[in-house]
């Protein structure tokens, strides 16, 4: 729960302990905007603020499932300029993400990694209970491939954000979110699974 703004203070605390961290970020949006309604801190800016404060190891940031409308003709330029790897949703359509996650594991190495999962990274057919749904997103199976693909990384924290149950009377979004959080707990270091 909570919007993506919560990741910013969490990463401040994580970086205080571990230094700049790698980031596996699943989302429909890059969340690297500069301002909204004159404010520098809102759910569309956390990762720009993190870059400005040196909280991220930008060579180890991957953003998966990015898509949707934009106010900019080149919406991923800021991310690329920082050294982020941006994996648009269309590069994920109709295929397994296991090979992608093998590449991500190499990119992350053995240094600290944080996972931040915005539920709108999934297609609203599966997770309509979010404030900024975007069509043509990831499937739940791909979400599992991403999270399970993080097993063995030096994960120092994770979150799942932007769940808005009032937008989904079926309860499926909350169910999916709870299961994804469970999967994240299972890939934390030193957690034994069968």
Structure in a nutshell:
It contains 6 helices and 5 strands, in the order αβαβαβαβαβα.
Give me the count of strands.
Answer: 5
Structural class: alpha/beta
- Using the coordinates shown, work out and report the CATH topology: Arginase, Chain A
Low-confidence stretches: none
CATH architecture: 3-Layer(aba) Sandwich
Through-space gap between termini: 28 Å
In which range does the helix fraction lie? 25-40%
CATH class: Alpha Beta
Query: What is the number of helical segments per DSSP (H or I, 4+ residues)?
Result: 6
Query: Which sequence of strands runs across the widest sheet?
Result: 3-2-1-4-5
* Secondary-structure element order, N to C: HEHEHEHEHEH
GO molecular function: agmatinase activity; metal ion binding
GO biological process, one term: putrescine biosynthetic process from arginine, via agmatine
Protein name: SPEB protein
Family: Belongs to the arginase family. Agmatinase subfamily.
């Amino acid at each position: 729960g909570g919007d993506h703004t919560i990741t910013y203070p969490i990463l401040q605390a994580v970086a205080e302990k571990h230094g700049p961290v790698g980031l596996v970020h699943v989302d429909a949006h890059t969340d690297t905007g500069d301002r909204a309604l004159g404010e520098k801190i809102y759910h569309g800016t956390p990762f720009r603020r993190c870059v400005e404060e040196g909280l991220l190891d930008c060579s180890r940031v991957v953003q998966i499932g990015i898509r949707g409308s934009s106010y900019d003709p080149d919406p991923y330029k800021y991310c690329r300029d920082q050294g982020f790897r941006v994996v648009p949703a269309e590069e994920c359509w109709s295929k397994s993400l296991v090979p992608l996650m093998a590449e991500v594991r190499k990119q992350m190495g053995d240094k600290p990694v944080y996972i931040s999962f915005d539920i709108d990274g999934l297609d609203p057919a599966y997770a309509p209970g979010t404030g900024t749904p975007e069509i043509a997103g990831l499937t739940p199976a791909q979400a599992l491939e991403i999270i399970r693909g993080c097993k063995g990384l030096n994960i120092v924290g994770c979150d799942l954000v932007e769940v808005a149950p009032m937008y989904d009377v079926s309860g499926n979004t909350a169910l999916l979110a709870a299961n994804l959080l469970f999967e994240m707990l299972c890939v934390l270091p030193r957690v034994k699974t069968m």
